[in-house]
Amino acid sequence: MGTMRESAVTDENHARSARLAESLRGFGVAGTLTFVVILVTAGLFTPAAVVLVLLWAWFSRTPWRELGLVRPRSWSRVIALGIVLGLAQKFVMKAIVLPLLGAQPRNPVFSDLPGHPDRLLILLVISVVQAGFGEELCFRGYLFERLGKLLGDGRYQRALIVLISAALFGALHFEQGIMGMVNATIVGGTSAVIYALNGKRLWLLVVMHATFDIASFLIIYYDLEVAVSHLIFK
């Protein structure tokens, strides 16, 4: 008798868990509210949003691969390619795109960074953990999964998701001013395109994003911003 009762309780718990997972994967009240809360949290404090995304994946029974967390065939290849792409992207943005848009060579937000190695170290850690992993998981992995479920996965839908991802990522950097938002929108759009074309694999973008930000802070710290900005356009 006790075994039958325990079995019934177990079945009911499984049923509740399944209903919760289904509601979180959908866009009813629970699914929509969770989606909004995660996006708002990502804009306020990315590490907290990362925790929420992982909890959502757990309770919604969403496989990690749906968030782009697919193990690469070669970690060394992904790391090497990510570093090359991150450095190339930084050079193109700093030496070509931003000068053409009329941006000032120096970033005013981090103008006090030179001479403060302790702050540099903190920013380098943030570049890897919060920006590289956290922002890519939230604004590429999670956002693509959710919007793909909502809008569909066709060619035009993917293009729209790329635009939405880039716009939201740009808005996240509002504290860096107009040019900071423009820079983030272009960089975020590039990452979104790569993510869509690369089979929705996240790790390359994590390395690329971290490399981009690390290079940005090192250029500022060693007072190389003006030199890099004037490499092509004097």
Short description:
Helices cover 76% and strands 0% of the residues. It has 234 residues and is an all-alpha fold. The chain folds into 2 domains: 1-62, no CATH class; 64-229, no CATH class.
The biggest sheet amounts to: none
- Mean pLDDT figure: 91
Q: What is the tally of helical segments?
A: 9
The structural class is: mainly alpha
Cα-atom radius of gyration: 21 Å
How many domains? The number is: 2
Provide the β-strand percentage band: under 5%
What's the total count of β strands? 0
H and E string = HHHHHHHHH
Helix content class? over 70%
| Low-pLDDT regions | none
Distance between the termini: 86 Å
Shape: elongated
Description:
The chain is an all-alpha fold and 234 residues long. The protein folds into 2 domains: 1-62, no CATH class; 64-229, no CATH class. It has 9 helices and no strands. Helix 6 packs antiparallel against helix 7.
Give structural attributes.
234 residues, mainly alpha, 2 domains, 9 helices, 76% helix
Tell me the layout of helices and strands:
Blueprint: H1 2-25, H2 29-44, H3 46-59, H4 75-100, H5 117-151, H6 155-172, H7 177-197, H8 203-221, H9 225-229
Helix pairs in contact: 2-3, 2-5, 3-5, 4-8, 5-6, 5-8, 6-7
